[in-house]
Write a structure and sequence with these properties.
It is a single chain. The strands form 2 sheets. The chain has a 4-stranded antiparallel β-sheet with strand order 1-2-3-4, with no helix packed on it. Strands 5-6-7-8 form a 4-stranded antiparallel β-sheet, with no helix packed on it. The protein is mainly beta. The radius of gyration is 16 Å and the shape is flat. It has one helix spanning 8-16, and strands at 26-31, 40-45, 55-61, 68-75, 77-85, 88-96, 101-109, 114-123. The chain has one domain. The mean pLDDT is 84.
């Protein structure tokens, strides 16, 4: 994830501060994208790896010898769903503005990476 385009700022900080622990920029949780039992991870960016109005999320698939990022999204929430596409669980991301407008997106695995399958507008009910 440090090699990702989104992490350029962190790479610069690590070069400037060789003693800086890269782990301060990430927090992860184990998930299972398939029924194979492999440990995959949903990782949330911390500190500089987050947006002004959203959080940054990566899904990292366990592959022998080299973990692989198969999904990246700026959102408020990212959830691993029970439904599947090509053997991998579908992903839902949600984002909304302070004014209440927003959207939800469903991503499906196409055999290589997650791609947008469905997007719908959402409205939070704001109390007067």
């Amino acid at each position: 994830m440090i090699a990702a385009r989104e992490a350029a700022y962190v790479r610069e900080k690590l070069l400037e501060n060789p003693g800086l622990d890269v782990n301060v920029f990430f927090v992860g949780t184990e998930v299972h994208l398939t029924d194979a039992g492999s440990a995959d991870y949903i990782v949330k960016g911390q500190d500089a790896l987050t947006g002004a109005d959203c959080d940054w999320f990566w899904l990292v698939r366990s592959t022998p010898g080299k973990p692989e990022v198969v999904f990246f999204r700026c959102a408020y929430t990212v959830r691993v769903l029970g439904s599947k596409s090509n053997g991998y669980r579908d992903i839902r991301s949600d984002w909304w503005s302070a004014g209440g407008d927003g959207y939800a997106e469903i991503y499906r695995f196409d055999g290589v990476k997650y791609v947008l399958g469905q997007r719908f507008d959402t409205r939070r009910k704001i109390k007067p």
